Structures
1.
Amino acid sequence: MTTDLLTNAPEVEAPVFPPRPPRQGRPTPHISSMDEYKKMYEQSIADPATFFGKMAQDLLTWFKPFGKVTFGSFKEGNVSWFLDGQVNACYNCVDRHALANPDKIAIIWEADEPNQHVSISYGTVLAEVSRLANVLKKYGVRKGDTVAIYMPMVPEAVYAMLACARIGAVHSVVFAGFSADALRDRMLDAKCKILITADQGKRGGKTIQLKKIADEALAECPSVHTVIVFQRTGDAAVPFHPPRDVWWHDETMNQRPYCPCEPMNSEDPLFMLYTSGSTGKPKGVLHTTAGYLLGVTATTKYIFDLHEDDVHGCMADVGWITGHSYIVYGPLANGVTTILFESIPTYPNAGRYWELVDKHKVTSFYTAPTAIRALRRLGDEHLQPYNLDTLRVLGSVGEPINPEAWMWYYKVVGRERCAIVDTYWQTETGSIIITPLPGATPSKPGSATLPFFGVDVAVLDPQTGKELVGTGVTGVLAVRSSFPSIARSIYDNHERYMDTYLKPYIGYYFTGDGVTRDKDGYYWIRGRVELDVINVSGHRMSTAEIESALVQHAACAEAAVVGIPDELTGQAIVCFCTLKTHTAPQATDQTLLAALTSQVRSHIGPFATPKRIVVTPDLPKTRSGKIMRRILRKVAAGDVGEEDVLNEDVLRLKLGDLTTLADPGVVAALVKRVATSQ
Ligand code: PRX
């Protein structure tokens, strides 16, 4: 394991911001003191069965009560919650609110163009979801089948997820920024027979050719027999191939607007979502019904401090876990209004988020540090025209938030009256696991602070696996015992699940992140401990995926990809490529560099665009042929200059031990290439 991220972890000194008292006319926070948090947290760890048993009864509606609350362990890899209970996620997110209050607004869809939005009631969601559920049944989808969803940010994306949940089908949402190859691999892996997609998507004034991309993917997925196509733009030039392709509007129009909910066992799968790991092959993280639903319902309620009339604005895409948990399942299970935002924060200008907050009276707002940094850079004047008075909670997710961005969020957006919640979690944890609670937790800019209920956090020595107890320690972040929303498996590959998360440190769930526990017991996330997973603008990807895209280019012999620090995006992608000998003269050829870039974009998606590609005669390798990424990362980040290469001692100081390098001369050549290529 590469642990240089963890050595020399800086002493953490930070100002402390006590929770803001509720303003006149605002609700009292659900958890309103540290004592209350501590008491509940201790109960949740000491007796999780009683704590979560009660919470599951209070927050969810069950078709059949559960028996044993929790069973299994990380050691055995058989974690289960709320055994033998029967529940339906769609019923909890839609029906129970629609039956009580059909006119209450469930979703506000803010379209790409700022003057267009639509408010959709719980009653309408119930009817639309039911119609689509009946269409899915008509095309043979049954409980346990997997349905692929490749949709833009339109309400129909949410209907598609909920329609699957309603009939017990497992949805596999593929982010609409993924390429045809990525979509194909995910549909094949999940053995999907049905795809739900749209003609085109709109984002920041641009059109995304979803159906065309889907068709390319489908050409190599013969098992997909039906493609349901929603018309987002209605462009007549979009390809359509009956009988495989059917129009969403034609099909739903003919279905009854009610469909009964399938009673699901608590441990039946609800969805899978692919995420990047340390190999090139993405893994389908599998979440089950009751545990996931309880996790997101409870975290949304307590962390965003949701009350009956609140409007929750999570700016993520439903194609990522943040969208699943905090646009769809969490807010809807709580019966509040959730915002679905089709556009980007800078379209048509950098005031877009704030216009949205003002117009829809958003009470809790959730975005990523990369967006906060970009907006901060564009200037405070973009906030001036808007009234942000309704905001109470501002959330951050996806990567560490630097203190400067935190302060800007707190002062300029929150006007020093809102709680900032820096929420740490992962696709695999399903819901937030380390976070402040508004109303209770004093915050420190840059720290995700303290664990959520039921999350028994441990800091381990990466080498020995021993627990580092007490305060002022840095190691890898692990969890000691299961909590309801933790992923149960990797689709069709339980062994990989065990190997990735549960076997590195027996008895613990291993997050893959480094962490410091400071003198007050607060947690500071230090990023991934392995260098083969990188985080660009909160998007997690594996270096192996990008490398495998590059080596598929005819000119590329070998590729090594590293993440370097980037002020805006957190990390940025730098690729080192060696060329096949017959192509060597083209090494600095711009056409070649452009071709390699587009190779990555078309194999993964535009969000994986490299910041820089360096063509080099050789890569630094050990005698056994292993690429030394540590060296590449430092050279790429500009930590080593051309003059440093001349002095062995300086080089050792900057790059560490180089004696294992097969050819020490390679470093000088690399530094030169980086200095001369742009
Ligand atoms: O490295 C951590 C980082 O994002 C990883 C999880 O990525 P993903 O599964 O794509 O989910 C992203 C949204 C939950 C983590 O292993 N990460 C996430 N939130 C934070 C964070 N790093 C620091 N602080 C956070 N608040």
2.
Amino acid sequence: MHHERGQHQVFCGLTGIIWLHRKIQDAFFLVVGSRTCAHLMQSAAGVMIFAEPRFGTAIIEDRDLAGLADAHRELDRVVTRLLERRPDIRMLFLVGSCPSEVIKLDLARAAERLSATFSPRVRVVDYTGSGLETSFTQGEDACLAALVPSLPATTDTTPSLLVVGTLADVVEDQFRRQFAALGIARVDFFPPRRSTELPAVGPATRFLLAQPFLRDTAQALERRGATHLPAPFPLGAEGTRGWLQAAADAFAVSPATFTAATAAAQDRAERALAHYRPQLAGKRVFLFPDSQLEPVLARFLARELGMTLVEVGTPFLHRAHLAADLALLEALPTTTRLTEGQDVDAQLDRCRAARPDLVVCGLGLANPLEAEGLTTKWSIELVFSPIHGFDQAGDLAELFARPLLRRQRLAL
Ligand code: SF4
């Protein structure tokens, strides 16, 4: 394992709003920031146009810098107008940014004040999406960690399962059916689809992480008495099987029930992967540190599709949460350079020297590398797309096969 420090190129945590607002359907994300933050949100949201958008930016104007009292008054005014106009909003996130932090605008105090004004209709929660020293997926971690104190407490001693991390609704429904087939009766997902359905948490809660970037959320849940179930992450057939197996073990599901509940879906996943293996096996892939999904993706690409890992970078490595995936990576016959952190220039030099077949990287690096004749895949797409579970294994493989196919066609 190598550690690198230096210049890095990543989006900030505000980006998480793009997938979080789609999941929690009665929430609104109000970024308290500058025009730069508003532009980032617009360009990250791309072409998505909503009749009633569920995120926006309260712009901190230059004059707000003159007095914090004015900034608080202005924020109250913006929030009041928003909530009057939008009775569908039941949860409001005040999302901090670099500018709100620079002027030391106390959003926790603002959230408390606004919660008192608008409760019980609207719950107001604050978290920060800022940061040049963070990776863009940390925005989700900060959001969910800020929500954990709002989860109802339970002293029920019957074990229940909590799946933690934003999943596409279609994937959540598939997992619900799979857990039901395993006989695990009490299953909740966090975040839920509606803020009024926050799951209860207590000492009998067992939780599975669906994403590898939820360090603070996991710690907050553990402080509430919940127990983490170590597992590989549910990407690909192997990862999904291991993830479901961890739940099955914790809930004493018999091997026969496990096989009956999972065999058909696993078989479908393996057949879907077999379709892509001829295109991907032996291809050399270089993963830049961006989403924190990289070690999990590397495990999937190498073990299930036969790709050769040139380098695997990740902005942060949570060794405990990633232990199962790292063990599977280490079991490969070849060793791979694993780097935590980034020195982007040094890494670009290594990438250019290696001339991999496929580079997985952030948006900022993709265009220049494409111009140099390298084939790239935007890592942010892997966070936006439904990729978890048996039934998405083939789609996940296709996300890597497609750019290679495009390059081949261009070459022809
Ligand atoms: Fe830029 Fe900071 Fe705003 Fe993110 S929060 S868009 S890094 S100014």
